[in-house]
Each structure stands twice: as structure tokens, then as C-alpha cells.
Amino acid sequence: MVATAVTSAFFSVTSSPDSSDSKNKKLGSMKSKPSVSSGSLQVKANAQAPPKINGTVAVTTSVEGSKNDDGASSPPPRTFINQLPDWSMLLAAITTIFLAAEKQWMMLDWKPRRPDMVIDPFGIGKIVQDGLVFSQNFSIRSYEIGVDQTASIETLMNHLQETAINHCRSAGLLGEGFGATPEMCKKNLIWVVTRMQVVVDRYPTWGDVVQVDTWVSASGKNGMRRDWLVSNSETGEILTRATSVWVMMNKLTRRLSKIPEEVRGEIEPFFMSSDPVLAEDSQKLVKLDDSTAEHVCKGLTPKWSDLDVNQHVNNVKYIGWILESAPLPILESHELSAMTLEYRRECGRDSVLQSLTTVSDSNTENAVNVGEFNCQHLLRLEDGAEIVRGRTRWRPKHAESSANMDQISAERA
């Protein structure tokens, strides 16, 4: 009503005298009945404050209309606004629908804001340090931990392998093969690992986020060395260090190959001039046989899911097979702290393997109560062909508690 009154001051529409006289006569002949409701409405209308336009009070005409000479009330003058339909209900409905849609959109776009929640920090990682180091974060999932509530050695090895592949992809060197460059794909060449050294200072637990940094260097004339450094992403504590040596193999003939010059031109710009994160384990890995092995596990066969895109068993699977023959008392009271592996031959889907293990101290029951010790391992085919030679070092699971007990015993003595 106020808008109508304001508009009438600016958009007044004059009516003809004849029409107004005829209307006045009709209104004069009609008798209006006074009512309480009409009076209340009239008071409320008169109580309206005059509107302001551009900071000044606009002079408006009364809503109830003016009286003619006969005392009859004339209708308010016709204006442009009061001839339009009332859009307020339609506008209110549109506003309600818009607000409801906006609320639903905000609910769909909702993300957790708590500081203890990790919001997708993983992706494929990033290249740092002048394009020579690749860094990627991993969250330790509930299905990646074992009975000790820590990540398994297979989980850590899978993280190392994943960062190696993502490093090649981020650098634009990933062809059709498993980590093979475009020139390697043209020549049917693939990378195979020949040696791996790993030292685990501490195993991460469920919910921890680890940062894996990896880089490559030259290893002799026809090899490549890849190093890894695993740390806690929040504290920076070093958890795992690993180094490995890789060579090329022809995918068709399954024979080792020299690095072609075209491939060398692809990978050498990414080589770092740095020492390995672990000093080379110069101790020779012994070959076990039926007479020297204390524990033997037979009948190990790869499944279809154990094969990678190059149609051979993934090297992480070998670690699980090696530990199949480890004594159960060792697995229960100790944890793997270091290992050195030499990959001598690949195996396929139809291979049947045997896992052999011997403990440095022949008295296993005493060894698990004393402290750290070493184990020798061999993974071989049924015909005796060697697949992997290995050596592992084990420490008590509660190393700090054992050290404190030894210190107290020494002080008492």
C-alpha cells in the first residue's frame, strides 16, 4: 500500500470528468455500512509513516481517497502500479525455492573442517628439488596393518614401488610398460630389480601419514640406482631407508640388455649425483640347501593377481613368500628391522616354489629372548633354480623396554 501511495505521487493518471461524475453518482446512491474492521484498517493505513525517496520525505495522497462535495468518498486515483497484479506471493515462492536449492547444494559440497581430518593430501605426489626428487604421501589404512597394529613390510614395499612408478609418470617418462620409457617400449625393454636393501627404524601405525621421497642415480654402465626415504609427514622422523639397483630386460627374450643410447638420453637428465641412502651390504648372501635350511615351506604357487603388467610375479610378493618359512616364535616376539635381497630369476604363473630359512643362532628359543639376530633365506623353484637370496635382521618388538630392563640390570650388578 505504501508503494502504491508513493507511486501515485509520480505516476498519477487523470480521469475524465464524465467518468468521475458518473462514478460519484453511483457511489452516492450506495450506502456503506460502518464496521469495526474497516475502522481498524483505516487507522492502520493512516498510521503508516511517509516513505523516503532519496533521503527526502515524499508527499503522498491519502489511501482512503478524497471526499467530494456530496460527502461521498471517491476511489483512489488510478496509477500504473495498482493496475498490476500482486507479485508478492510469486516472489516469496521463488525465494523459498532458491534458498532450499542453495541449502541442498551446500550439503552436497560439504567437506570436513576438523583439523584432525586429512582431506585428500595424496594424489600422485609432486616433483621437488629442481625436478630430481619425487615426493608422495600415503595414509596407513586399517587393512594395511597386522596383529602388531603397525604397517607390514609388504605395505612399505608397495609404497616404494608406487612412488617409483609415479615418479616416471610425473616426469613424462611412462610409456606402455610398467615404468618403461617410450623408447624402452619401442625396443621391448623393461626394468627389473636385481638388489634391494631396506632398513626400518620404526613402523608407522594406523592413521599415520608417511612421506616417501625417491630419486634415481646411475649404477655402473648399464644399471640405475633408486633410493627412497620414508618419514613421518608431520614430525619429519625418518622411518625407513631403502636403496635398489635396476637393470633392463628384453620383454620378449627375457634376457638382460644394455641401456640403449636413446633410452639413456631419456633418463640421464633425471639422475642425481648423490651417495646411496644405505651403504652397500658387502656381506655375501649364502646359498641354502636342504642340508643347511632349518625351516622349509613347499608348494608356493603364484596366483593371477600376483602378476604385474609385464607378466611376471611382482617383487613385493617374493618378500611374503620368503617370510612364509620364518619361525613363528620369531614373528611373534620380533619385528623385521633390515633386509637385503638379491633377485636372481623371475618366475611365472605356473611356477611352484619353495621357501628356505635358517637362523644364525641354532637355538631359536634362546635367540628370541636375547636380542637381535639374523636369518638367511632362499626362494627357489622345485627344480632347484634360485629365485631370490636374502638376509633379514630382527629386533625385539619392544626394543625400548628391553633396553631399559638391561640398563637396570647392569646398574644393580
UniProtKB/TrEMBL annotation:
Domain Acyl-ACP-thioesterase N-terminal: 1-120
Keywords associated with the record: Chloroplast, Fatty acid biosynthesis, Fatty acid metabolism, Hydrolase, Lipid biosynthesis, Lipid metabolism, Plastid, Transit peptide
Ranges of compositional bias, category Low complexity: 29-40
SUPFAM superfamilies found in the cross-reference section: Thioesterase/thiol ester dehydrase-isomerase (SSF54637)
Chain ranges of the Acyl-ACP thioesterase-like C-terminal domain: 292-395
Listed transmembrane segments: none
Protein purpose: Plays an essential role in chain termination during de novo fatty acid synthesis.
Name the UniProt record assigns to this protein: Acyl-[acyl-carrier-protein] hydrolase
Species annotation: Gossypium darwinii
